[in-house]
UniProtKB/TrEMBL annotation:
Highest taxon listed in the record's lineage: Bacteria
UniProt protein name: DUF4440 domain-containing protein
SUPFAM superfamilies: NTF2-like (SSF54427)
InterPro entries: DUF4440, NTF2-like_dom_sf
Provenance organism: Actinorhabdospora filicis
Pfam assignment, any one: DUF4440
UniProt domain DUF4440: residue ranges: 24-128
Length: 138
């Protein structure tokens, strides 16, 4: 996957990389998570992506995909409770609050999570370069 160098973002294709296409990418990413579509998730994640979880631990792309590939994490419901989308200097940011239901390592989970994802332009569209998930207190 080849990303667009930051130095060239001034000439960025705003038809491909704007808040509308970022909203669409976030929608497709959530759908891929719900479908446990490892191939689609792989395409959405930059090779150098890092995800910081609610406990403060950080995992890379391989570890994130392994959780989905092994079906350690399976989501049966994703309900979006809120969303903010920004494109600043060619970098996209989505902040979503989701109610998620499913299983993690065989244990039932139901939680409200706040996710912040940093997206960058790439040849295949928006890809996630960094993400953070926090548990929202009930």
């Amino acid at each position: 996957m080849i990303t667009v160098p930051l130095a060239t973002l001034g000439g960025m294709d705003t038809d491909r990389f704007n808040t509308t296409t970022l909203n669409e990418a976030e929608n497709r990413f959530q759908a891929a998570m719900l479908d446990n579509d490892v191939s689609a998730l792989d395409a959405f994640l930059h090779d150098e992506v890092r995800f910081t979880g609610p406990d403060g631990s950080t995992i890379d792309k391989a570890a994130d995909l392994a959780v989905h590939r092994s079906r350690t994490l399976l989501l049966s419901e994703i309900d979006e409770l809120g969303r903010e989308v920004q494109v600043i200097g060619g970098i996209g940011v989505t902040r979503v609050t989701l109610r998620v239901v499913g299983t993690l390592a065989g244990d039932k989970i139901e939680a409200t999570m706040a996710y912040t994802r940093t997206w960058i332009p790439a040849d295949n569209g928006w890809v996630i370069a960094a993400a953070h998930g926090s548990l929202v207190a009930p």
